[in-house]
Amino acid sequence: MSGPYIIGLTGSIGMGKSTTAKMFQAVGVPIWDADAAVHRIYAAGGAAVEPVRGICPEAIIAGAVDRDALKDWMTRDPSALAKLEQIVHPLVAEDRARFLAETETDIVLLDMPLLFEIGAHEHVDLVVVVSAPAELQRARVLERGTMSEAQFEAILAKQVPDSEKRARADVIIPTETLEGAKAAVQEVLDHIQEKLDA
User: Fold this and answer.
1) 185: Cβ–Cβ under 8 A, 6 or more apart, which residues?
2) How far apart are CA 100 and CA 37, in angstroms?
3) Which among 54, 74, 102 is the end of a domain?
4) Three-state SS at 133
5) Residue range 108-133, pLDDT digits in tens
6) Cα 186 → chain centroid
7) What pTM does this model have?
8) Which domain holds residue 132?
9) Is 52 in the same domain as 89?
């Protein structure tokens, strides 16, 4: 097998994906985080700054892409998201390819909220979906105090539903408890190691 064994980790908002990714990281699995990659390309000097300036100059503030300005633009212009995705998705894919090329371990993990939405599930060896009951998901998101119920519903509407993610997963990690999630992470890694050793 050429290159590392690739785990694709995904899950809807509030399902515990970031916490679960950290559990993999804690036992030595290198993580590529899609959200962090977007932050890198949006930062001053990042690869997205000039292309975004070309389609929405007011979104560039202090040499970086300003997410709030992008949100304002998207509420005014229905075609904004599609234009932005044409810039962002290829740059994020480049960042991911660089990570995979430079990481010399047997197993890596890609932490990707939009794994299914952008078709990246076709390029991983194992699709892992984190999941929790809908009421726990809602409570977690609203407890953060960073978004209203309406914003939460709007994000949910754009994501592949949890039931569909579960149906398409190779492995489901339940995140009701930290202990349960940790045990499931270890099971996944033991299973992969057995495969690699075979």
Assistant:
1) 20, 23, 24, 27, 173
2) 13
3) 102
4) coil
5) 999 999 899 889 999 999 999 999 99
6) 21
7) 0.89
8) 1-30+106-198
9) yes
